Prior knowledge:
With 271 residues, the chain is α+β, with helices and mostly antiparallel strands. The protein is 18% helix and 57% strand.
Amino acid sequence: MYQNALNSIxxxxxxxxxxxxxxxxEKVAKKPQVTYDSxxxxxxxxxxxxxxxKIQVLNTNNYPIPVDALTYSLSLNxxxxxxxxxxxxxxxxxxxxxxxxxxxxxxxxxxxxxxEKLFKDGKIDYGVSGNVKILGFKLPFEKKDTLYLPVVKIxxxxxxxxxxxKVSLKLPISISNDNNFALPVQGISYVVNHKGKGIxxxxxxxxGIAKKSKKEIILPLEISPKNLGFTLFSLVTNPTLALDVQxxxxxxxxxxxxNRDINLNLRKLLN
Length: 271
C-alpha cells in the first residue's frame, strides 16, 4: 500500500513538472506556423504513382528551433490510403519559411482503386492532413480538394496545301486541366493509316499544363497522294483519300487514346 501511494505521488509530481515545463515553454517560445502550400504529381508508371503535397513551416522566433517529427496521411474519398513520417527535416531558421514535401506513393491495390474511381467519375476527392511536432507543440495541418482527370479532345481538321504531290493537314488537340496544380503531360504519339497501312508515324513532346488551363497542340500531317497511287485519271473514279489517324496522349499515370477518320475529296480540293 505504501508503494502504491508513493507511485501515485510520483506520477502526480511528474505531471505537475511536465505541465510547468509546457507552460514555461509557451512563455519563452512562439508556436511555429504551418500552412498548406501546394500539390503536384511526381513519377508515374504502370506500377506506381507518386503524389507530392507540400507544406510551409515558419519559425516566428528570433532563434533556430529543431523539428522533432512530421506525420502525415493521404485519403481518397475519405478513406485513408497512406500514412508517413519524416524525422529528418532538421532545424527551422529564424523568420524563414521552410517548404517540406510529403511524398505519397500509390501502388498495387491503392493505385487500382485510384484509377478505377478517377476513370469512372472523372474526378476523385483527396485530403492531406498531419502534424508537425516542434518543441512539444503539435501543429496540425489539413487540406481537402478534388483531383480531376484531364479532358482530351480532337478539334476540326485544317486543310492547307493540296496537290497530288502533297496534302498538308493540321489536326488540333486540346487538353484541359481543371486541377489546382500543374499536370505533367509527357507527349503525344500518332500514326496515320491508309487502307490499314501506316504511312506517317510521329510524336511530339508537350511538357506540363498549368493549373486551371487548357493547352492546344497542333499535329502536322503531310501526305503524298501520288505515292499512294493517286493520279489525275484515277481521281475521276476514285477521288476520296481515306485516312485513319490514331493518337495516344500520355499524361503520365494515364494514356488517352484518340481516333479520327478523315475523308478528303481530292478532286474537289484540286479544282
